Amino acid sequence: KQEVTQIPAALSVPEGENLVLNCSFTDSAIYNLQWFRQDPGKGLTSLLLIQSSQREQTSGRLNASLDKSSGRSTLYIAASQPGDSATYLCAVSGGGADGLTFGKGTHLIIQP
Amino acid sequence: NAGVTQTPKFRVLKTGQSMTLLCAQDMNHEYMYWYRQDPGMGLRLIHYSVGEGTTAKGEVPDGYNVSRLKKQNFLLGLESAAPSQTSVYFCASSYSAAMGETQYFGPGTRLLVL
Question: Which residues of B touch A (CB under 8 A)?
Answer without folding.
Answer: 4, 31, 33, 35, 40-45, 48, 50, 56, 58, 90, 92, 97, 99-100, 102-108
